[in-house]
Amino acid sequence: MAINLPYLTSQSGLKKVLDKVKEASTPDKFNEKYLNEKLNMHGGSAKAIPPFMKRIGFISSDGSPTEWYREFRNPSLSGVVAYKALKHAYKEIYEISEIAHKKSDAEIKGIVAQITGLDHDNPVITYIVATFKTVKSYALFNEAQEIAVLKKIDDQGSKETSTSPHNNEQQGQVGLNIGYNINLNLPATSDIAVFDAIFKSLKEHLLKGQ
Question: What are the φ/ψ torsions at residue 59 (nearest 5 degrees)?
Answer without folding.
Answer: -135, 155
